[in-house]
User: Fold this.
Amino acid sequence: MQRTENYMVMEFLSRSSNESFARTAVATFAAQLDPTLDEIGDIKTAVSEAVTNSIVHGYPNTLGKIVVKVRILEKNTLEISVRDWGCGIENIDKAREPMFTTGGEERSGMGFTIMESFTDRMRVKSSVGRGTTVVMQKRIAPRMR
Amino acid sequence: MEVIAMCRERTLELKLRGELDHHGACGLLTKLEREIESALPSELVMDFRGVTFMDSAGIAVALRGWQRMRELGGSVVLRGVSAQARKVLETAGVGRMMTIE
Assistant:
Protein backbone atom coordinates (compact mmCIF):
# COMPACT_ATOMS: atom_id res chain seq x y z
CA MET A 1 0.00 0.00 0.00
CA GLN A 2 1.50 3.31 -1.07
CA ARG A 3 1.36 6.30 1.25
CA THR A 4 -1.04 9.09 0.28
CA GLU A 5 0.68 12.48 0.29
CA ASN A 6 -2.30 14.53 -0.83
CA TYR A 7 -5.80 13.93 -2.15
CA MET A 8 -8.99 15.58 -3.34
CA VAL A 9 -12.50 14.30 -3.93
CA MET A 10 -15.25 15.79 -6.04
CA GLU A 11 -18.81 14.75 -6.74
CA PHE A 12 -20.99 15.91 -9.60
CA LEU A 13 -24.07 15.00 -11.61
CA SER A 14 -23.66 12.97 -14.81
CA ARG A 15 -24.33 15.90 -17.14
CA SER A 16 -22.11 16.09 -20.21
CA SER A 17 -21.32 19.72 -19.44
CA ASN A 18 -19.31 18.39 -16.46
CA GLU A 19 -16.83 16.51 -18.71
CA SER A 20 -14.79 19.65 -19.26
CA PHE A 21 -15.05 20.68 -15.61
CA ALA A 22 -13.86 17.26 -14.36
CA ARG A 23 -10.75 16.97 -16.54
CA THR A 24 -9.76 20.60 -15.90
CA ALA A 25 -10.16 20.19 -12.12
CA VAL A 26 -8.03 17.02 -12.07
CA ALA A 27 -5.34 18.63 -14.23
CA THR A 28 -5.29 21.69 -11.94
CA PHE A 29 -4.86 19.48 -8.85
CA ALA A 30 -2.11 17.51 -10.63
CA ALA A 31 -0.24 20.75 -11.38
CA GLN A 32 1.53 20.52 -7.98
CA LEU A 33 3.55 17.58 -9.42
CA ASP A 34 4.91 19.95 -12.08
CA PRO A 35 3.82 17.88 -15.08
CA THR A 36 4.86 18.69 -18.65
CA LEU A 37 2.26 19.91 -21.16
CA ASP A 38 2.21 16.41 -22.67
CA GLU A 39 1.56 14.84 -19.28
CA ILE A 40 -1.26 17.33 -18.60
CA GLY A 41 -2.73 16.41 -21.98
CA ASP A 42 -2.57 12.70 -21.10
CA ILE A 43 -4.25 13.26 -17.72
CA LYS A 44 -7.04 15.41 -19.19
CA THR A 45 -7.70 12.93 -21.98
CA ALA A 46 -7.80 9.87 -19.70
CA VAL A 47 -10.14 11.62 -17.22
CA SER A 48 -12.37 12.80 -20.06
CA GLU A 49 -12.76 9.24 -21.34
CA ALA A 50 -13.54 7.78 -17.90
CA VAL A 51 -16.08 10.47 -17.00
CA THR A 52 -17.72 10.27 -20.45
CA ASN A 53 -18.05 6.49 -20.02
CA SER A 54 -19.91 7.00 -16.74
CA ILE A 55 -22.19 9.61 -18.32
CA VAL A 56 -22.92 7.70 -21.54
CA HIS A 57 -22.82 4.07 -20.40
CA GLY A 58 -23.26 4.23 -16.61
CA TYR A 59 -26.33 6.45 -16.71
CA PRO A 60 -27.67 6.11 -20.29
CA ASN A 61 -31.24 7.30 -19.68
CA THR A 62 -30.94 8.93 -16.32
CA LEU A 63 -28.78 11.28 -14.28
CA GLY A 64 -26.68 10.00 -11.40
CA LYS A 65 -23.75 10.66 -9.13
CA ILE A 66 -20.12 10.52 -10.27
CA VAL A 67 -17.28 10.73 -7.76
CA VAL A 68 -13.72 11.47 -8.84
CA LYS A 69 -10.96 10.96 -6.31
CA VAL A 70 -7.39 11.96 -7.05
CA ARG A 71 -4.49 10.91 -4.82
CA ILE A 72 -0.87 11.87 -4.95
CA LEU A 73 1.16 8.86 -3.91
CA GLU A 74 4.86 8.38 -3.29
CA LYS A 75 7.28 8.64 -6.21
CA ASN A 76 5.34 11.39 -7.98
CA THR A 77 2.49 9.04 -8.80
CA LEU A 78 -0.99 10.34 -9.51
CA GLU A 79 -3.91 7.99 -8.90
CA ILE A 80 -7.29 8.92 -10.35
CA SER A 81 -10.45 6.98 -9.61
CA VAL A 82 -13.75 7.64 -11.37
CA ARG A 83 -16.77 5.95 -9.83
CA ASP A 84 -20.43 5.75 -10.79
CA TRP A 85 -23.42 3.90 -9.35
CA GLY A 86 -24.94 3.25 -12.77
CA CYS A 87 -25.78 0.13 -14.72
CA GLY A 88 -22.34 -1.49 -14.70
CA ILE A 89 -20.45 -3.42 -17.38
CA GLU A 90 -21.48 -6.98 -18.19
CA ASN A 91 -18.25 -8.03 -19.90
CA ILE A 92 -15.23 -5.92 -18.95
CA ASP A 93 -12.80 -7.75 -21.28
CA LYS A 94 -15.10 -7.09 -24.22
CA ALA A 95 -15.58 -3.43 -23.22
CA ARG A 96 -11.80 -2.96 -23.12
CA GLU A 97 -11.34 -4.19 -26.69
CA PRO A 98 -10.44 -1.40 -29.15
CA MET A 99 -13.34 -0.27 -31.37
CA PHE A 100 -15.96 -2.12 -29.28
CA THR A 101 -18.83 0.12 -28.26
CA THR A 102 -22.44 -0.12 -27.19
CA GLY A 103 -22.72 3.66 -27.38
CA GLY A 104 -23.94 4.06 -30.95
CA GLU A 105 -22.32 5.82 -33.87
CA GLU A 106 -21.21 8.90 -31.95
CA ARG A 107 -18.80 6.83 -29.88
CA SER A 108 -15.56 5.41 -31.29
CA GLY A 109 -15.08 2.50 -28.90
CA MET A 110 -11.60 3.81 -28.06
CA GLY A 111 -12.24 5.05 -24.50
CA PHE A 112 -10.58 2.23 -22.55
CA THR A 113 -7.76 1.92 -25.09
CA ILE A 114 -6.97 5.62 -24.61
CA MET A 115 -7.17 5.40 -20.80
CA GLU A 116 -4.77 2.45 -20.95
CA SER A 117 -2.26 4.01 -23.31
CA PHE A 118 -2.33 7.51 -21.74
CA THR A 119 -1.66 6.23 -18.19
CA ASP A 120 0.74 3.66 -16.72
CA ARG A 121 -1.86 1.42 -15.18
CA MET A 122 -5.63 1.02 -15.36
CA ARG A 123 -8.01 -1.24 -13.45
CA VAL A 124 -11.77 -1.58 -13.93
CA LYS A 125 -14.13 -2.91 -11.30
CA SER A 126 -17.75 -3.25 -12.27
CA SER A 127 -20.88 -4.99 -11.19
CA VAL A 128 -24.08 -5.05 -13.24
CA GLY A 129 -26.75 -2.87 -11.67
CA ARG A 130 -24.36 -1.49 -9.07
CA GLY A 131 -21.84 0.60 -10.93
CA THR A 132 -18.29 0.92 -12.21
CA THR A 133 -15.00 2.18 -10.82
CA VAL A 134 -12.01 2.95 -13.04
CA VAL A 135 -8.66 3.48 -11.31
CA MET A 136 -5.74 4.88 -13.27
CA GLN A 137 -2.19 5.57 -12.15
CA LYS A 138 0.31 7.80 -13.85
CA ARG A 139 3.83 8.60 -12.75
CA ILE A 140 4.84 12.19 -13.42
CA ALA A 141 8.52 12.27 -14.29
CA PRO A 142 10.47 14.50 -11.87
CA ARG A 143 12.00 17.42 -13.71
CA MET A 144 15.53 18.74 -13.34
CA ARG A 145 15.66 22.33 -12.21
CA MET B 1 -18.41 23.73 -30.33
CA GLU B 2 -18.50 26.03 -33.33
CA VAL B 3 -18.17 24.92 -36.96
CA ILE B 4 -17.58 27.25 -39.90
CA ALA B 5 -17.96 25.66 -43.34
CA MET B 6 -16.43 27.01 -46.53
CA CYS B 7 -16.45 25.41 -49.96
CA ARG B 8 -14.14 26.37 -52.81
CA GLU B 9 -13.39 24.42 -55.99
CA ARG B 10 -14.75 21.16 -54.59
CA THR B 11 -12.72 21.46 -51.40
CA LEU B 12 -14.91 21.61 -48.33
CA GLU B 13 -13.19 23.20 -45.38
CA LEU B 14 -14.62 22.88 -41.89
CA LYS B 15 -13.08 25.09 -39.24
CA LEU B 16 -13.68 23.65 -35.77
CA ARG B 17 -13.50 25.77 -32.65
CA GLY B 18 -13.78 24.76 -29.01
CA GLU B 19 -13.47 21.52 -27.09
CA LEU B 20 -14.13 18.37 -29.08
CA ASP B 21 -15.43 15.97 -26.44
CA HIS B 22 -18.71 14.03 -26.13
CA HIS B 23 -20.46 17.22 -24.96
CA GLY B 24 -18.97 19.47 -27.65
CA ALA B 25 -19.46 16.92 -30.45
CA CYS B 26 -23.22 16.87 -29.91
CA GLY B 27 -24.78 17.52 -33.31
CA LEU B 28 -21.40 17.71 -35.03
CA LEU B 29 -21.79 14.42 -36.97
CA THR B 30 -25.12 15.58 -38.40
CA LYS B 31 -23.64 18.95 -39.35
CA LEU B 32 -20.63 17.22 -40.99
CA GLU B 33 -22.85 14.92 -43.05
CA ARG B 34 -25.14 17.76 -44.10
CA GLU B 35 -22.20 19.89 -45.30
CA ILE B 36 -20.70 16.99 -47.27
CA GLU B 37 -24.05 16.15 -48.85
CA SER B 38 -24.66 19.70 -50.02
CA ALA B 39 -21.09 20.36 -51.24
CA LEU B 40 -20.23 16.89 -52.65
CA PRO B 41 -16.52 17.78 -52.38
CA SER B 42 -13.53 15.87 -53.71
CA GLU B 43 -11.52 16.90 -50.67
CA LEU B 44 -12.56 17.45 -47.06
CA VAL B 45 -10.29 19.60 -44.91
CA MET B 46 -11.01 19.68 -41.19
CA ASP B 47 -9.16 22.54 -39.56
CA PHE B 48 -8.33 21.76 -35.92
CA ARG B 49 -6.38 24.95 -35.14
CA GLY B 50 -9.22 26.24 -32.98
CA VAL B 51 -9.69 22.95 -31.11
CA THR B 52 -8.40 23.42 -27.57
CA PHE B 53 -8.98 19.83 -26.42
CA MET B 54 -9.93 16.58 -28.11
CA ASP B 55 -10.74 13.09 -26.83
CA SER B 56 -12.13 9.99 -28.55
CA ALA B 57 -15.17 11.96 -29.71
CA GLY B 58 -12.81 13.44 -32.31
CA ILE B 59 -11.96 9.95 -33.60
CA ALA B 60 -15.65 9.31 -34.34
CA VAL B 61 -15.88 12.64 -36.21
CA ALA B 62 -12.72 12.04 -38.27
CA LEU B 63 -13.79 8.48 -39.15
CA ARG B 64 -17.27 9.61 -40.19
CA GLY B 65 -15.78 12.23 -42.51
CA TRP B 66 -13.44 9.63 -43.95
CA GLN B 67 -16.31 7.15 -44.56
CA ARG B 68 -18.43 9.70 -46.38
CA MET B 69 -15.48 10.95 -48.46
CA ARG B 70 -14.54 7.38 -49.38
CA GLU B 71 -18.08 6.89 -50.72
CA LEU B 72 -17.56 10.00 -52.88
CA GLY B 73 -14.10 8.84 -53.98
CA GLY B 74 -12.47 11.79 -52.21
CA SER B 75 -9.88 12.33 -49.51
CA VAL B 76 -9.60 13.85 -46.04
CA VAL B 77 -6.98 16.15 -44.56
CA LEU B 78 -6.88 17.02 -40.85
CA ARG B 79 -5.08 20.35 -40.52
CA GLY B 80 -3.54 22.13 -37.53
CA VAL B 81 -3.80 19.10 -35.22
CA SER B 82 -2.20 19.64 -31.78
CA ALA B 83 0.20 17.10 -30.26
CA GLN B 84 -2.48 16.01 -27.76
CA ALA B 85 -5.13 15.52 -30.44
CA ARG B 86 -2.65 13.72 -32.70
CA LYS B 87 -1.84 11.23 -29.95
CA VAL B 88 -5.57 10.52 -29.53
CA LEU B 89 -6.04 10.02 -33.30
CA GLU B 90 -3.00 7.74 -33.51
CA THR B 91 -4.35 5.32 -30.87
CA ALA B 92 -7.05 4.49 -33.43
CA GLY B 93 -4.62 4.44 -36.38
CA VAL B 94 -6.38 7.38 -38.03
CA GLY B 95 -3.10 8.49 -39.65
CA ARG B 96 -3.18 5.39 -41.87
CA MET B 97 -6.48 6.50 -43.40
CA MET B 98 -6.06 10.24 -43.85
CA THR B 99 -3.42 12.97 -43.83
CA ILE B 100 -2.78 14.57 -40.44
CA GLU B 101 -0.96 17.90 -40.65
Summary: The longest helix of chain A spans residues 37-58. The mean pLDDT of chain A is 94.
